[in-house]
Amino acid sequence: MLEQINQKKALLDEKRPLPKYTLKSLREKLLLEWTYNSNAIEGNTLTINETKVVLEGITVGGKTMREHLEVINHRDAITYVEEIVHKEEPLSEWQIKNLHRLVLKGIDDEYAGIYRDQQVFISGASHVPPAPYLIKEQMEQLMKWYDTEAKELHPVERGAMLHAIFVGIHPFIDGNGRTSRLLLNLELMKDGFPAVVIKVKNRLPYYDALDKAHTSKDYTNFIQLVAAEVEDSLDLYLSSVN
Description:
Blueprint: H1 2-15, H2 20-41, H3 48-55, H4 65-87, H5 93-104, H6 135-147, H7 155-169, H8 176-190, H9 203-216, H10 220-241
């Protein structure tokens, strides 16, 4: 699968630079779908069209302030990811905290960008995240892995594993899922891949693959799931320039 992805990526690279307005409309399409799906996975009830309206600055009746903020915050977090990519900044814990701060801004300011001080559980999962006093050490281990072993991996494998390991640590009280998907795309976009969308319709296999990765340290299923979404995004980009 990675070989096929490499071929499609090489094909896309040959077509670059893409036409300005094609690129703009692709970005808008993916920003909307990424925001809608990432929030829907976490229980946000806004439809994709309602999400589009909120992104345009209009309030949707009958929906909570939190649901509106989740859309606006996610858009701002994507913009921050794009800035990091554009500036070619290396990934750091500080950036991860900043991303999370944007995700929870105005929703839970007390814990935005702050590692949790309480035990949490992931509903429906066998995996139990580490105790609060272990978080700092495990995040440091994650960054050490990222700066060493991870460099040898294919960007799709590296992005998927960064997402999975991070969400297994579950360093924040809330917003870990959204932050992990932002980190996945940050990693992919750094290597010139289009953003991927983990679709809400795939929520169950997504959660199952994550739980398997956490309990058995076997990341194969999760990497395959991410790779399928990467291929989807590459196909979308290639279809726009053929």
